[in-house]
TrEMBL record:
The lineage of its organism: Eukaryota, Fungi, Dikarya, Ascomycota, Pezizomycotina. PROSITE patterns: AA_TRANSFER_CLASS_1. This is Aspartate aminotransferase. Homodimer. It catalyses: L-aspartate + 2-oxoglutarate = oxaloacetate + L-glutamate. Belongs to the class-I pyridoxal-phosphate-dependent aminotransferase family. One of its GO terms (cellular component) is cytosol. Its EC number is 2.6.1.1.
Amino acid sequence: QADTVPQAPEDPLFGLMAAYRRDDDPKKVDLGIGAYRDNNAKPWVLPVVKKADEIIRKDPDLNHEYLPIAGLAEFTSASQKLLLGADSPALKEKRVTSLQTISGTGALHLGALFLSKFYRTNAKRTVYFSNPTWPNHFQVFSNVNLEYQQYPYFSKETRGLDFDGFIKTLKGADEGSIIVLHACAHNPTGVDPSQEQWKEIAKVMKERKLFPFLDTAYQGFASGDLDRDGWAIRHFVEQGFELVIAQSYAKNFGLYGERAGCFHFITAPSSDAEETTKRVASQLAILQRSEISNPPAYGARVASTVLNNPELFAQWKEDLKTMSGRIIDMRKALRSKLEELGTPGTWNHITEQIGMFSFTGLTEKQVLKLREDSHVYMTKNGRISMAGLNTNNVDYFAKAVDKALRD
Ligand code: PLP
Ligand code: TYF
């Protein structure tokens, strides 16, 4: 029977990582995967995570029992506060239900699965993604048979936001369409709407009765400020939408492989909102039970230990500043080196874009040339992970780009 199974293509990002590992040139540069690296190009365990780990290990009552279906309660409630603010009316009015998930991907999946089963507002239940978006969005939503379209997002001319195209598509979308929004530090472009633009996006979505599906994988990583990076989410919640949020702690805690994340459903304000939220929670628990029974404990314990301890929380903010600060320094260094070399084109977008990634504007041909000639690895769409740059390789990379653009 299995001889009818067609060969699937390799995941492009993981394929790129494998090609990097096979390259034995000492000058090679990895700008592929979106994972933080320190100035020596090494993975970085956050000092606050090390501290939390020690605290967890010292606990004489630590055991390896199953967590509840919805996960570690201290973790999900701290996650709500981190996203929405401790005094959020949505929390006071018991309009929020949250489940611990297999990182952000698991939260996206649980949300998509829930909507595929219960979302009735729009018969077609079309999902809209930004163009471009994180490629996994397509697979996660297609897997539960939701159809997707895309809204314009990135302008090739300005290398910034195509705000007019974005708004025009929202205005033309069928009522009830699901709109996936990157809450901050858009992957892959590094381009976010301004607060004024977010207000307009929310206004149009409200008018057109569109459903926000917020994906937040970089809170604290974009600006180094948790509240600032959480602004768009809080704005949508304040507007009284019914909405969902997929939250990942992979990047902001460096807990990639531990799969710590959370899914949140927020009911719109109404007299029976609390009851509605309870019914939603009961269905989410059944979906979670059938898929993973209960989520993994370690990553959630680490995050929860930090989120619930004021001293550790303060240290976490410092660690976030270390990561986001180093990335901002690398943006400045790359831009100034390219400008110093007089590399063809303009390079202001390197410092204007934010978060883990920059969309350089390099073409696929130039990307492949950089790989061939200079052993620099980046995705074919011209995205670089800023975290792969450091004081030892940024000049080398700038010169390699300069060469690729002149040949
Ligand atoms: N959403 C976006 C836009 C991302 O960039 C990522 C990570 O790269 C995720 C979600 C979730 O990743 P994870 O499942 O590792 O938390
Ligand atoms: O855009 C990126 O670089 C990410 C990396 O579970 C990634 O796709 C890899 C694994 C994963 C989530 C994100």
